[in-house]
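EI: anyone free to look at a 249-residue chain?
SC: sure, send it
EI:
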Amino acid sequence: MSEFTVYPAIDVLDGRVVRLHKGDYEKETRYSDDPVAVADGYARAGARWMHLVDLDAARAGGYTLAERLEQIVERTGLQVQTGGGVRTADDVQRLLDAGASRVVVGSMAVRESEEVATWLERFGPDRITVALDTRASEDGAWVLPISGWTSVAEKDLPTMLHTYSEAGLRHLLCTDIGRDGTLSGPNINLYTFLTHAVPDLQIQASGGMRHVHDLRSCRKVGCAGAVLGKALFEGRLTVTDAVAEEEVA
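SC: here you go
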């Protein structure tokens, strides 16, 4: 099997580590007041990467976690992909300067795909992760919520896949919002579609992960990695067990 990477996640809102249910800011569960300590725990458990989200910035713009990002990288040695409120090339550069290994671009990647395509060329495809958060509409189409999942873009998921595949994107994070924070299992049909539609992309699965069997299912259909959130905080899965799946042949 191909290489697989586990990304333990920390979502930060008002300085606290939280999880949202299906992206709803009104359905927040708090887990810790110390994101750096949580990241250190991930590193001690064997993680190589982590996923850091600024939920305040995702909703309002203006990344607020640069200081914590620097602390995490310095203290833990983790490679960090991070985003929230990234609007300009200067924002990307600031996060890279603060120690990010990859910058996650979400709403901007949907609204201004031509602009974000120039960032891929400027910074290189290994420094950008495009995050296309999706949910199924009433007619079954995969739509793209933006602005902290508070509105929906005009372009749909297949359109964006084509755009970024042509632009040279390498890393795509796709979250099924309907499963995010639900512990209901990943949407394997979605990831099967993605890995067949854009086989040149490294797909990161996100939303609903419960246990190692979910990681294996994502890997089996061709995903290059998976983001883990609530399952870790609720004790359904440990970082140690999850990271062990990176080595499964």
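EI: The first strand starts at residue 5 and ends at 13.
SC: 👍
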